[in-house]
Amino acid sequence: MYLQRRNRILRQSPSIRSLVAETILTPNDFIAPLFIDEGVNIAFEISSMPGYYRYSIDNMVKEVKDLWSMGIKSVLLFVKAPDALKDNTGKEAWNAEGLMQRSIKAIKNAVPEMYVMTDVALDPYSVYGHDGIVENGEIVNDATVAALVKMSLSHATAGADMVAPSDMMDGRIGAIREAFEKNNFTKTGIMAYSAKYASCFYGPFRDALDSAPGFGDKKTYQMDYCNRIEAIKEALMDVEEGANIVMVKPGLPYLDIVREVKNAVDVPVSVYNISGEYAMIKAAAKMGWINEDKAILETLTSFKRAGADLIATYFAKDAAKLLG
Ligand code: PBG
């Protein structure tokens, strides 16, 4: 057989494959999400996220040291607020002595170079489990934005490097940037969850923080998964309003969106490999149906290939070990 072009030549050995690999995954790409709770010496395994824990601050700091030693340079903080502190204003979110604020300071004391990102949304603090303030059964936009601004300022004051609004209210990125400018937080960044879809894959996360919505769903603020152009609009607007990084979330069912957003914006793009995606790999691996380590690396590499510059993933530590 005469063939002018033999493509398999470039796949013959590990050496040539590594020489022509288009996508290289490294721990520098990872953002490790952390779940934090009150208490001392607590490591509570989340039942729908086997192998993933909610930590008290002391254990969380140990985890952060571990992550840093493995080459992971960024963490994304989520806290579980005690029920007694939940209300419809979210005011615990900007308590200077709140769990989030204490966590930020503890990390900055222990590992000053770790880049600390913080979740900004009211759901952990909301009696309704919604990301915003509720009036007459509706999640109101503008009053919520005012609350998110206070929350962001409080995280910045505690020492956060970057806030990550995950709420999907209109106009919050511009409002937060403006507040940062006015208050001299000129070095504090914003990673906008720009294209965040209303997804069934958030279930295990809501178990982790006990933050499932008490009524209805999040479809009046999170995006409809039928839509693509809307994601580009959201990302472009967030960049315009001052976002330093834009995010697409969830990850795996939205690789097309990651690529489209990457092609449309001039800021780094992140993707969130979310809790349900973690749970699916864990469950299939436990059943013996897939090889967990290979599934992790293939999945994370697919995000980079799709155009993600950063990947928030519960597999950060596992993957860093595998990439060792
Ligand atoms: C809420 C928030 C959610 C996640 C991050 N921030 C869940 C939701 O919107 O209900 C999901 C993360 C995951 O599933 O891993 N602001």
Output the keywords.
single chain, 324 residues, alpha/beta, TIM Barrel, eight-stranded parallel barrel, two-stranded antiparallel ribbon, 11 helices, binds ligand PBG
Tell how many strands the DSSP assignment holds: 12
State the CATH architecture: Alpha-Beta Barrel
User: How do the strands line up in the largest sheet?
Assistant: 1-4-5-8-9-10-11-12
Unreliable segments of 5+ consecutive residues: none
CATH class: Alpha Beta
Through-space gap between termini: 43 Å
CATH superfamily: Aldolase class I
Write the layout of secondary structure elements.
Blueprint lengths: L13 H7 L9 E8 L5 E3 L7 E4 H13 L4 E6 L19 H12 L4 E6 L12 E3 L2 E3 H18 L3 E4 L6 H11 L6 E8 L6 H7 L19 H13 L3 E5 L5 H10 L4 E5 L1 H12 L5 H15 L3 E4 L2 H8 L1
Parallel strand pairs: 1-3, 1-4, 1-12, 4-5, 5-8, 8-9, 9-10, 10-11, 11-12
Antiparallel strand pairs: 2-3, 6-7
Helix pairs in contact: 2-3, 3-4, 4-5, 7-8
The protein binds ligand PBG.
What's this model, at a glance?
The chain contains 11 helices and 12 strands. It has helices at residues 14-20, 57-69, 99-110, 141-158, 172-182, 203-209, 229-241, 255-264, 275-286, 292-306, 316-323; strands spanning 30-37, 43-45, 53-56, 74-79, 115-120, 133-135, 138-140, 162-165, 189-196, 245-249, 269-273, 310-313. β4 (74-79), α3 and β5 (115-120) form a beta-alpha-beta unit.
